[in-house]
From TrEMBL:
Pfam family, one: MiaE
SUPFAM superfamilies documented for this protein: Ferritin-like (SSF47240)
Biological classification of the source: Bacteria, Pseudomonadati, Bacteroidota, Cytophagia, Cytophagales
A GO MF term: tRNA 2-(methylsulfanyl)-N(6)-isopentenyladenosine(37) hydroxylase activity
Name listed for the protein in its UniProt record: tRNA hydroxylase
Ranges that cross the membrane: none
Length: 198
C-alpha cells in the first residue's frame, strides 16, 4: 500500500471533511480536547522520563505549544458562541494505546513505544488539519487549520527523532511500520465519524 506524505498507510476517507464541515461545532469541541490531551501526554512523558534531559528539554516547549493550540481552538468556539462542552473519551486514541501497548521491562523499548504513539496521533491530526485547511468553505478556519497543520507536522517528526535518539533508527522504523499497520486497521474499523477529529 502506498504511503501518504505523513507515512500513514490509510488516508482519511474523503467523505470525512464534508461531514466534518457540516458539524464544525462538534469538530471544534473535540479538537479542543484533543489539544488538551496532547499537552497532558507530553507532561506525562516528562514525568515518566524525568531522567532523560534530551526528552525533557525537547517536550517542554511542545507542552506550551499544545496548550496554546487549546486556547486558540477555544477562541474559535467563542467566536461562534459554541460552549466547550464536556471532556470526551477518544475511542481512536484508546484503541491505539490498547492495541500497541506491550508488557515489556525494557526501559528504552517502552520509551520508544510511548514516543511513537504520540507521533502517530500527531500524524493523523496533521492529516485531518490538512484536509480542513484545503477543503472547508470558511476562509478563516482554513487559515487556522493550515497554521496548526504545520505545527503538528513538526511535532510528529520530533517524537520520531526523539525515539531515534535513544534506539537505533532501524529498530525505530521497524516498530513504526507495526504502528502504521495497526493504526490503518483502527481507522478502517472506526469509519467516518462526524463529531470527532480522529
Amino acid at each position: 500500500m502506498s504511503l501518504t506524505t505523513l507515512g500513514l498507510e490509510l488516508p482519511t476517507d474523503p467523505r470525512w471533511v464534508n461531514i466534518a464541515e457540516m458539524n464544525i461545532g462538534e469538530i471544534l469541541v473535540d479538537h479542543a480536547w484533543c489539544e488538551q490531551k496532547a499537552a497532558s501526554s507530553c507532561i506525562s512523558l516528562i514525568v515518566q522520563y524525568f531522567d532523560q534531559p534530551t526528552l525533557v528539554d525537547t517536550l517542554t516547549p511542545i507542552v506550551s505549544e499544545e496548550w496554546g493550540h487549546f486556547h486558540r481552538v477555544l477562541k474559535e468556539l467563542q467566536k461562534r458562541d459554541i460552549p466547550l462542552g464536556r471532556h470526551r473519551k477518544d475511542e481512536y486514541v484508546n484503541q491505539v494505546r490498547t492495541r500497541l501497548r506491550r508488557s515489556i521491562n525494557d526501559y528504552k523499548e517502552q520509551m520508544m513505544d510511548n514516543l511513537l504513539m504520540n507521533a502517530l496521533i500527531e500524524a493523523r491530526s496533521c492529516e485531518r488539519f490538512k484536509l480542513l485547511s484545503e477543503q472547508i468553505a470558511d476562509e478563516s478556519l482554513r487559515k487556522f487549520y493550515r497554521e496548526l497543520m504545520i505545527s503538528e507536522a513538526g511535532h510528529y517528526r520530533t517524537f520520531i527523532d526523539l525515539a531515534e535518539a535513544y534506539l537505533p533508527a532501524e529498530r525505530v522504523r521497524k516498530r513504526w511500520k507495526e504502528f502504521l499497520a495497526v493504526e490503518a486497521d483502527i481507522i478502517a474499523k472506526l469509519g467516518v465519524r462526524s463529531d470527532r477529529m480522529h
